[in-house]
Each structure stands twice: as C-alpha cells, then as structure tokens.
Design a protein that fits this description.
Helix 24 packs antiparallel against helix 26. Helices cover about 45% and strands about 15% of the residues. The chain is built from 26 helices and 24 strands. It is of the alpha+beta class and about 725 residues long.
Amino acid sequence: DPNDYEVGKRQSLPMINILNPDGTMNAAAGKYEGLSIKDARKQVVADLDALGLLGEIEARQIEMAHSDRSKTAIEPYLANQWFVRMDTLAQMAMDAVSDGRVKIVPPRYAKGYLDWLGEKRDWPVSRQLWWGHRIPIWSRVETDEQELEDIEAYLDADPALEQGQMSYFVERPREDESLTPEEKADLPHAVIQVCIQDEDPETESRIEELGFTQDPDVLDTWFSSALWPHSTLGWPEKTEALDYFYPTDLLSTSRDIITLWVARMVLAGLHNMGEVPFREVYIHPKILDGYGETMSKSKGNGIDPLDVQEKVGADSLRFGLAYLTTETQDVRMPAEFECPHCNHVMEQTKKNRMLPKLACKACGKEFSTQWAQTEADKALPRGAVVSERFELGRNFCNKLWNAARFVLINLDGYTPGPVADADLQLEDRWILSRLATVTQGVDEALDSYRFAEAARLLYDFAWDEFCSFYVEMMKERLADAQGRAAAQRVLASTLDQLLRLLHPLVPFITEDLWQRLAEIAPERGLAEPTAAAEAIIIAPWPTADTARIDATIEQRFAKFQATLGGIREIRSRQNIAPKQEIEFSVRCDEEIKALLAPLEAYFESMANAKTTGWGPDTKAPELSANVSLPGIEVFVDLADLIDVPSEIARNEKELEKLQGFIAGKEKQLSNKNFTDKAPANVVAEHRQSLEDAKQQAASIEATLVNLRARRSS
C-alpha cells in the first residue's frame, strides 16, 4: 500500500521483501517459504485459527488493482531500482509551460502537468520485462579496498573512459549511517557501477571479462518514449531531419498521459536538445463506450474503425469523430453488433462483448465476434462492431454528394468570367456573405483546436443553407437562359470554397467532387477566374472575403429560413400535399416585416405558399394552423384543409407548455432577490420573454376558440 510505504519511510522502518521474483515466498517468510501468495495467505489464516488467535472472517469488498492482461491482483514487490533524479529536470519542464514555450490546450490541463512535476519525485525507470531498452549499467561487487583500487585503476586506463563513452561510480553501502553494525556486516565492501554510453561490443566485452554483469532490467517504456521526438530523427547525430523537424509544432494526445509522456518528452527534449520538442499540446477528449468506460482491446468494448469504414465510409467516420470532439467532455459511444445475415443491430453489453459468437435476436442465426478462437466459431460470418453515432456523418456526406451532383449537372455550358456585384442577386449576396462568415468561424475554430465547432459550422452551412436553400433557389435561374451564366459562376465558386473548407473533415468525397468540378469548370472565381489546383489537397486554404459580409442580409435570410420552416412544418403536420397551394400570413413587427416582405417570391417557389399579409396588425384567419417563432407568428389558412381534432390537441399541448413557462417566469420576476441583484439588462430580457410568451398564449387561445367553434358546427 502506498500509504503504508510512506509511513514506513517516515518512521525509518526496515523494508522487508518476502517475495521471490516468481511470486512465491522467500526465506524471509519463514515456514511459508516456497508457497504462492494465495496459498501462503490461506495457511496464515489456518495457523491463526489453530492458535486460537482468529477473531472472525468477514467478506468485504475492497479496491484492488488488477492487471488488464492477466486479470490477477497486482502485488507490491520490493526490489532495487534505478531512478532518474528529477529536481532539475522537473523544474526545466515546469518553466517551459509557465513561460509559454509550451502551450497546453485547453489551458486547464496545464495545472495537472505543473502539479505533478512540482512534486519532483525521482523517477523509477527499472522494469522487469522481456522487451525494451536494456539498462546500460554493469556492476561488480568488491570485497576489500585493494581489490577496489585495482579495478578503478584498470577502468581509469580504459580508452572508452578517455573518449567519454564510459563512466563509472563507486557505491559504498556500509557508509550508510542509518544502518546497524549487524546490517552493515551483511553488505559488500563496495559496488562499482559502470555505464556505457552507446552500444559498443568491444567495450562491453572488456568490462564483462573483468567480472562485471549487466543489469537485467529494461528502461521504463515512458523513458524510451520520452526520447521519441528527437531519437526518431537520428539523435544523437546531427541529421538533416533532426534540424528540419525538431522542434515540431503540435502534439495531440489524451489527458491520461500528460504526466506519463508529455511532461517527460518536454524534460528529455530540454535535457538532450536544449529546446522544447513541440510548441503546443492539444488534449483531445476520450471516446468512451456506452457505459462510460475507456475503450480497450482487453475489455473487448472497442469499435473497430475498419468496421465503421466498411459500413458508412472513411469520410463518415472522420466527420463523425470531428463532430463529437468537443472541448469540455468525453464522448460516450454505445457499440452495437451488426448481424452479417440480416443487418440487424444488437446492443453490445458487458455480458456479450467478449463472447466468441452470438445469435442474432432478429433472424436467430449465429455469427462470430473478434473473440472467436475455435475453428467452428471462426467459420461463422463475422459480425461487425459499429455505432449509430456515425450515421450523422453518412447522412451529411450523402447530402453533400447529392447537392454537388445537382450543381455539376447544371453547370453544363459553363464559361468562366467575372461577376460584377451589380449582377449578383439577393440570394447570391446572402450565400457569399454566409460563406465569408462561416470561413471566418472555421478559421477561428481550427486555430484554437475547436474541431467540433468547425464541423458544426460547416454542417449547418452546407446542409441548411447551401444544399437546402441556395441550391433550391437557383433552380429557376438555371432554367433561365439570360441569368444562367451568372448563376453557374456563383454556384461553381461557392462549391469550390465549400469543398476546400470541408476537405480536412471529409477528404475523399471532396477530392472526388473537386476532380469532377475541374472537368466542367477548370477556371473558377467571381472577381478574376483562375485555374483551380490540380488536386484539392494542394489547393490554397480559402480566405474569408470580409467585404462581402452583410449582417442585414444574413438576418433577413435567417428569418426567412425560420418562417419557411414553420410553413413546411404546418404543411407536414396537416398532411397537405406539396402540390396544394396554401396561403399564409405573418404577425411580426415592422422591422421583421421589412426583412421578410421582399422575399415573397421565394415562399411561392420553395413552399408553394402565397402571403396574405405581414406586420403587427395581421389577424389570424378564422380557421388556421400556427407556428410561434421568436418575434414571428405564422398563420396558415386551413379552410377546407384542416384536421380540426389534431390541431386542437396540438394547440392545447402548446398552450399548456406556455402556461407553465409563464408561471415560472412570473415566479422568478416576483422574487426580489432576483430582480434586485441581477443586472438590469438580464431582468429586462426576462420581462420581455414573459411578455412574448403571454402574446403567444393569447394567440393560441384565440385559435382554439375558432377551432372549437368549427368542431361544434
């Protein structure tokens, strides 16, 4: 127990080892010598019982570390270890982060790095393993002073010592003042430790001929890994690769190994190279299974990326991961087995995740898993391990592909040429403004490693604005010979920049579309068309054309999208056929009216809906369905179209929600602790929110009166 060990050190208690390296009891265990740990414990309990010294045996659950591989309890074992002194090294690594030479993102992880190094505990680097860098230390025990002096003289004359390839030091165990005379008598007179810097068979042979024996231990894996940033580039030789690539810009890693690896790479780099190994460290979130456990092969709870790639594609896998990679929290990803016979998916549980085969709950047929061992199990079709979290990526890639293919088909007859601002239609100015705004946002997100934010910005722009709105708006213009050329040039230019923005997230589909676009429109651009790069991977990263950003147009189209969405929702809710023309009106203030009224034609072309009125004085038709949006009330005239019972039920449910919201707001605003202490602007926002809710409730109540009258008639 670590706590017992610390108490023993503070009290200068003797450190007694009772274990052999193979886990059996040694001579210090007395009559239990030779027994395994498990058998020795049983025998101790039996002996206590035989002596009448056993009080009671109580079943109790305790925390005990177990090996992931062997699944057995980890037992403490006292052994001589080599340590790296950490006082100076730790301080160097701390200073590198404190003075900004190494920046950790997100910044909160820097505290754990500094706290751990601040303890400055010496680092034990001995490991009793079969693989690894063997510790380059050779030892020999000396029985008297004359023998010691003879060996020292021989070592001092060795050419490797003069060349700096070998060093040695003398350990005198009997000089330890904390030992008793009896303890000192059991120790050797001296021990000579020789360190050989590089692998040198001749020097090693000379040393071993003198009776020196190399330490059997290997270096800690993290010690070897700490050398990775420079040892892989040819260090200690001064190579061209080392000069070019060291230091690098960024290390991306998990928080689990900030102390194990990141800190040690920094201190090793500073010690060996005199410079930090990287400028920034990005700590990414972890992907956990559905139970919140870290995915690992030994637990059998991982998702095979090759299975995901086979099912939804490499781009869907990549985009899905980026979309989930938030700054603040880990990601839970429930895993599922997919039946190879019927494609039915079954939840992966703690009970079934390591079974060699499973029976599908849908078709009843058996399939193997990654744990299949017998030939019979391996002969079964293998069930893939996948997750529904990647469906979003697949749907997005499909949407992008279909929209881009529509654009490519409609670029037939494309000719490059500049497009003057005066020739841009309202929807062109909107999409170019949004494209510039999104490009700015993506740049800022990627610069600060907010990958999920970049993915969400591009997802929303590509799906909701470019594919669902702008491409739809362009259909009529593409059919018009007079406006077709300008429409094609704006479409080609917009798709060009969108593909480049998306390329880091979905590299394969964007490269494919880039090549197809190049066949039809090899020169693209609005101001001065230029030849596109041969491949998107070498195309320049797009820059935001801030001169095109127009906040008013963006606000106008945001309101338009919300209103159009409300109309479509009512059409869907009431089961009104898309070909059936509908009439709608909008209650809003004059400012919103000024934004929406110029877009009447788009409501007709995109929703088959004609407006009958805008503004604050708009009245709801006697029989109508409505949708309440921030600052907007949409009414669709449903005379002869309405499903009265379902509309009454929907409005009653909506009214109930609003009444609950109003009651909560009124209670909050009646609390003087809130109204007196909260900032005035916050209180004002809450009052306005309450007023808006009351207006929406009044509108719904009026609609319900009309609907109920209609039902009773």
